[in-house]
Automatic annotation (TrEMBL):
Protein name per the record: alkaline phosphatase
InterPro entries attached to this UniProt entry: Alkaline_phosphatase, Alkaline_phosphatase_core_sf
Family membership noted in the UniProt record: Belongs to the alkaline phosphatase family.
Keywords tagged on the record: Signal
């Protein structure tokens, strides 16, 4: 019966879809067997901890992926596959280790993507809207003295390849947190500079200056790379740079002899051979890329997040020293801000598919994969829906949609605030609108919200982090967001502080000598942890 769905007609023209429940679930044995299997898997995970050096690091960020988003996204994917949905396991759920992360910034209880991106990539918390600087980097003159190094920059210094993949503009806060250092996250290009900012490079310029270090750049953001008056390939948009520089053309000119390709549409992207390409910049939109549900309408066509992830890994993995890759499902955040859960949850599915690709193309023995969110959203799922109720449908009780005390139906998904409230800016209040089943399935449907705001906001809640590969067990527990950067740098031996860590020394290829003897802690020397092949016990690497 698993996966077999039936349709219940509840109220005139109001439909609720539910799948048959596996009869075994009504028995004790089913749950005892399931619990036993989960326990064995948990024991296996912790009995086989990966404590070696991470050659590669892949960070996947679901921008705005609250815990509720992960739950609703899981149900949605399961229902797309013909299941009830609650029982489905996503690729995120199957990662061996997980924990919770506190997302506040120095000055805000509810953070933005710049402050959280800085915490995730540098291990240093900063102020709201600041990128790659500590809390002192509050203005252009103060940026240089307050810069903090990102994990990607440490990886580049170690000789690794680097890449950024996103569905937003590549200059947006999360992708920019890998390479940019700036006091204002919205300084995407130089057209909005104030007189006091003339000595600070805008984010697009900072990305261009790292063109030889960041081998793969995929996302949107063409307009920030081109001068005023230069027309876009697909849209009526123009370039916005005030300095007259065409950074896309300069990128192509500078890397002409470096096996480099610039692409802006799906056909060109598909034609790129990763085996013969060392540098790839794909900018598929003037600003943000299309929502996945609208991708087919794009004039030039766009690759999916999973396709971009696959291409990036295949290019970067040619480096024997390894690579660092950031992958962001950035439009998940945009969908939530619009109060359109249908769009947001489809972007969650895009992240899930990208993670599947990343895991299939890499080896868990040498690749640390971390999937998390920068922050959450005011998104909620529940409202009394029965098992298998359409995640986008009306809250139902065994096929009969429920009514609130105002006599109107309501949906399983609601927002705490946002544009889905009946009261618009020109009205102080308004009665809650009536909800019908056929409204809620539209991709543009705005779920109802409690507080009327023009844009739905971030939340202050903790977010979940999932991990696999070397040292991923260190993510277990409740941590500051900065902990993730420290785990990455420790696992991959990045930065001066980690060069003499036990797992880094073992993987260095050195022979026993005075250098190693001097770098080992006295306790390690006394316990004779090393033999001639740098053997040691796994627990000493933790």
């Amino acid at each position: 019966m698993k996966g077999a769905c039936f349709t219940l007609i509840a109220v005139a023209l109001i439909e609720s879809v539910q799948c048959a429940i596996n009869p075994a679930e009504f028995t004790t044995d089913f749950w005892e067997d399931l619990s036993r299997l989960e326990l064995e898997n948990a024991k296996k995970n912790f009995n086989n901890l990966k404590t070696g050096k991470a050659k590669n690091v892949i960070m996947l960020i679901g921008d705005g992926m609250s815990l509720g988003t992960s739950t609703a996204g899981r149900i949605r994917i399961g229902q797309k596959l013909g299941q009830n949905g609650e029982e489905y396991m996503t690729s995120l759920d199957s990662m061996p280790h997980s924990g919770l992360v506190k997302t506040y910034s120095i000055d805000y209880q509810t953070p933005d993507s710049a402050s959280t991106g800085t915490a995730l990539l540098t291990g240093i918390k900063t102020r709201f809207r600041k990128l790659g600087v500590n809390g002192g980097g509050t203005s252009c003159p103060r940026v240089e003295a307050n810069k903090v190094t990102t994990s990607m920059e440490f990886a580049i210094a170690a000789g690794k390849s680097a890449g950024v993949v996103t569905t937003t503009r590549v200059q947006h806060a999360t992708p920019a947190s890998t390479y940019a250092h700036i006091h204002r996250r919205t300084l995407y290009s130089d057209d909005k500079k104030t007189p006091g900012e003339r000595h600070c490079d805008d984010i697009a310029m900072q990305l261009f200056k790292k063109r030889r270090d960041i081998q793969v750049i995929l996302g949107g953001g063409r307009s920030h790379m081109r001068p005023v008056g230069v027309a876009d390939e697909e849209f009526k948009s123009m370039g916005v740079r005030a300095d007259g520089r065409d950074l896309i053309q300069e990128w192509q000119d500078d890397l002409a002899n470096k096996s480099a390709s610039y692409v802006w549409n799906k056909a060109q992207f598909d034609a790129v051979d990763p085996q013969t390409t060392d540098h790839l910049m794909g900018l598929f939109s003037p600003y943000e890329m299309q929502y996945s549900l609208n991708r087919k309408n794009d004039k030039g066509g766009e690759p999916s997040l999973a396709e971009m992830t696959e291409k990036a890994i295949k290019i970067l993995s040619k480096n024997d020293k390894g690579f660092f890759l950031l992958v962001e499902s950035g439009l998940l955040d945009k969908g939530h801000h619009q109060g359109r859960a249908n769009l947001a949850l489809e972007e969650f599915h895009e992240l899930e598919k990208a993670l599947n690709v990343a895991r299939s193309l890499t080896d868990e023995e040498d690749t640390l994969i971390i999937t998390t969110a920068d922050h959450g959203h005011m998104f909620m799922i529940g409202a009394g829906g029965v098992r298998g109720n359409d995640v986008f449908g009306l809250a139902s009780s065994h096929g009969n949609p429920r009514k609130a005390v105002d006599g109107k139906y309501y949906t399983t998904i609601v927002y705490g605030n946002g544009p889905g409230h009946a009261a618009k800016p020109h009205k102080k209040s308004a009665p809650r609108q009536s909800v019908q089943r056929w409204h809620t399935t539209s991709k543009y449907y705005q779920q109802q919200s409690v507080v009327p705001l023009g844009t739905e906001t971030h939340s202050a809640e903790d977010v979940i982090v999932y991990g696999s590969g070397p040292m991923s067990h260190l993510l277990t527990g409740v941590h500051e967001q900065t902990h993730i950067a420290r785990v990455v740098q420790y696992a991959a031996c990045l930065g001066p502080a980690n060069q003499n860590q036990l797992h880094c020394v073992k993987g260095s290829g050195y022979v026993i000598g005075n250098l190693i003897e001097q770098t080992l802690p006295q306790k390690a020397k006394d316990r004779r942890l090393f033999d001639e092949s740098y053997g040691g016990t796994p627990e000493d690497d933790i």
